Task: structure prediction
Amino acid sequence: MADVGSPAASPSVQLPAVTPSEPYDAAANRLLDEIRRTVRTREYSLKTERSYLSWVRRFLRFHAGSFDHPEQFAAGHATSFLEHLALNERLAARSRNQAAAALSFMFREILVVTK
Result:
């Protein structure tokens, strides 16, 4: 395992092109790997890395089967997930804020989705 503080890749690394036959799980794993690589490149703490990966995994499981590839997600999908956390799972605001930060990072830095 690489040292948390050591750069693993440049911040401008883009996900490789997706083939139409690529399974959702493989694409989701590549997305998680890219998040891990970007977080480490920016020298975020190990706790932040673990938290972001955990929330993104929950987000991907929440939307599993709805899409062929994680890159098809839009900001509205994050909103529906956060509403689910608040209404169905009754998570505290602090926990929802952590989830929102992780999803914001994923959309802004990895999937490069803007408002």
Observations:
- Confidence is low (pLDDT under 50) at residues 1-22.
